[in-house]
Amino acid sequence: MKGRALAAVALLLAVPQAMMAQAADACEIAVATDPDARKLLAAAAFAQADEAMVDNLIACLGDPDPAIRDDGAFALWSEGLRGGHLSPALMRHAMQRLSALLAAPDDAAGFRKPFAALALSEVARADRIAAFLTDVERHALAQLSATYMRGITDHRGFVAGEGWRHGVAHGADLMLQLALNPRLARADVDPMLAALGVQIAPADHHHYHQGEAGRLARPILFLAKRADIDDAAWAAWFRTLHPDAAPRWQAPYGSDEKLAAVHNSTAFAQAIYVAASESQDPQVRRLAPLAVGLIEALP
User: Fold this and answer.
1) What angle do CA 89, 9, 17 make, to 5 degrees?
2) Residues facing residue 9 across a β-bridge
3) 243: which DSSP letter?
4) Domains assigned to the chain
5) What pTM was estimated for this model as a whole?
6) What is d(CA 52, CA 191) in angstroms, rounded to the nearest whole number?
7) Which is nearest to 267 in space by CA: 199, 203, 204, 195?
8) pLDDT digits (tens, 9 = 90+) for 177-224
9) Which residues contact 74 (CB under 8 A, 6 or more apart)?
10) Can you spell out the DSSP letters for 13-51?
């Protein structure tokens, strides 16, 4: 693997000895960034997977080193699940561990929960492709996604030298996979929509500038395909995004902090409008005028 770009994975696995040559400890298995090499490693890594291996990999998702956390551990996790290398029993075990992380208080560094959400998005995707969760388990995952999204207060995205946290985007990715799943119950949709609404223009005045608006729009656009959400429900939800009597909407152009609400709401509405107006699906297209209405309601 000389000459290739490598990323360290925080993981203890039984893999072929040649792949362990550069491992200094349990958290250093080199993963080639070459996709074909990663596929081979994922197949080998998960061939003898057990709960301990899954737990070790999950622990790596909170590593402060982005090469280990993002380029290594999550890349291997995604490849393993998308390649069908993890059994339903182990995916269920992983969901329990990741759900516990997502429900726990924030860690000091702030990486564990965002990457738990991103890892759970792969579990939700696997369930969408080939259902293995019960309705009760899927409901619990949807409720957890809403609770997490609603409670995000750390809005850091990419930080030089530290890599990504991006809790809002990762939480939206989890909701996207749930939104794509036709087995998602209608009762789970409203809490998800309410939680997404909280983060479209967060109250802490954070200016989104790392693609958050587009990521938040994606689950909305796929939920719009559902026949069980009528036009009145969508109109009511978009009205919750309109300015109200809160101080942050008063004279927003006189304060950079207040301007964040206008900026973030505009970016979200534009993302919805562009995608909805270009869609061939009439269910999705109905969101376009609602996005225009949001823009027109902004100061």
Assistant:
1) 85
2) 29
3) -
4) 1-83 (no CATH), 87-297 (1.25.10)
5) 0.89
6) 33
7) 199
8) 999 999 999 999 999 999 999 999 999 999 999 999 999 999 999 999
9) 61, 115, 118, 119
10) ----GGGGTT--STT-EEEESSHHHHHHHHHHHHTT--H
